[in-house]
């Protein structure tokens, strides 16, 4: 049992480090997406007199932003809940650990996670 705990802690440490890097990348991707859409809208409005893209700007970018926020909350809750059970209880700790196990052991879960990271889901 002790070796399993050591392996789990090692995996979690690697996973936490990777998540920190991916959060920066995800935030950058989201910002670039936002700026690209805004640039297209401004270009159309200023050069072509077409304000339709500016008018639909929020409808265009907000779904992506809310999707990212959902992912960020899910990831943050999972990481925090997987640790100390005195914070939010043993039930949430064990369900969070089950989610983490799925990320490591399920190709489907890993694929969905990577799509969230890349913003392609």
Relevant terms:
121 residues, mainly alpha, 89% helix, elongated, disordered N terminus
Give a structural overview.
The chain has 121 residues and is mainly alpha-helical. Residues 1-7 have low confidence and may be disordered. The two termini are 37 Å apart. It has one domain (2-118). α1 packs antiparallel against α3 and α5 (90-105) crosses α6. The chain is built from six helices and no strands.
Shape field: elongated
Strand proportion: under 5%
Please estimate the helix content. over 70%
Order of helices and strands: HHHHHH
Mean pLDDT: 80
- Rg to the nearest angstrom? 19 Å
Protein topology:
Blueprint (H helix, E strand, L loop, with lengths): L1 H47 L3 H4 L1 H25 L3 H4 L1 H16 L1 H12 L3
State the gist of this model:
With 121 residues, the chain is an all-alpha fold. Helix content is 89%, strand content 0%.
